[in-house]
Design a protein that fits this description.
The structure holds two protein chains of two kinds.
Chain A lengths: L3 E4 L2 E4 L5 E7 L5 E7 L5 E7 L6 E2 L10 E5 L2 E6 L8 E8 L6 E2 L3 E5 L1
Chain B lengths: L2 E4 L3 E5 L4 E3 L1 E4 L6 E6 L5 E7 L5 E3 L5 E5 L4 E6 L8 E10 L6 E5 L3 E6 L1
Parallel strand pairs in B: 2-12
Antiparallel strand pairs in B: 1-4, 3-9, 5-6, 5-10, 7-8, 8-9, 10-11, 10-12
The chains are: A mainly beta, B mainly beta.
Chain lengths: ~110, ~120
């Protein structure tokens, strides 16, 4: 299965700023996803990153707040914009080739102060 | 729409004891089911998956799960746990994303397995 490298692993950011998280996959994958995991909680899907087109966002998430890029089948970025303390969370990317389960990056632990 | 219910938020057990982590799902279509494990400060690792065929699925680290369609369950079991099995375990079901174009995973809230000496 694919291996995903995610960075940064953690960051502390000032409110009002933006952070871009990168995920690099060691092989081409059809689908990539971005999740948020708040402390002690489960994973919530933010959006599906579509190669060459706009991402598909889940209810409660918007492009202005979480712009996503996916220029090719091995790379994607998620930006958390205009951050507030409520954005403090773990962000994870995931990738795979269909319904056979997905590989996850190691996560980005974001703290907004 | 799909949903997943993990019935126990925490399961403490002693080392070498058997363990069962419970998962129930709901879906209006055929499902694919997964168990993931998350060790502290790490991402998620796939333990096992059910796509079709035999209802008993074997995964890594000695874990297995049984798909029960009539009870809409997919419980995870291990006959003898180790200290190193201490982690958060997530049950997930696949389904369509909001655009109806791609599969996505819907996760349960997780079960924290704590193995004590």
């Amino acid at each position: 299965s694919a291996v995903i490298s995610q960075k940064p692993s953690r960051d502390i950011c000032q409110r009002g700023t933006s952070l871009t998280i990168q995920c690099q996959v060691d092989s081409q994958v059809t689908m990539m996803f971005w999740y948020r995991q708040q402390p002690g909680q489960s994973l919530t899907l933010i959006a599906t990153a579509n190669q060459g087109s706009e991402a598909t966002y889940e209810s409660g998430f918007v492009i202005d707040k979480f712009p996503i890029s996916r220029p090719n089948l091995t790379f994607s970025t998620l930006t958390v914009s205009n951050m507030s303390p409520e954005d403090s969370s773990i962000y994870l990317c995931s990738g795979g080739t269909g319904v056979y389960g997905y590989t996850f990056g190691s996560g980005t632990r974001l703290t907004v102060v | 729409a799909q949903s997943v219910t993990q019935l126990d938020s925490q399961v403490p057990v002693f080392e070498e004891a058997p363990v069962e982590l419970r998962c129930n799902y709901s879906s209006s279509v055929s499902v694919y089911l997964f168990w993931y494990v998350q060790y502290p400060n790490q991402g998620l690792q796939l333990l096992l998956k059910y796509l079709s065929g035999s209802t008993l699925v074997k995964g890594i680290n000695g874990f297995e799960a049984e798909f029960n369609k009539s009870q809409t369950s997919f419980h995870l079991r291990k006959p003898s746990v180790h200290i190193s099995d201490t982690a958060e375990y997530f049950c997930a079901v696949s389904g369509w994303n909001s655009g109806g174009s791609n599969y996505k995973l819907t996760f349960g809230k997780g079960t924290l397995l704590t193995v004590n000496p």
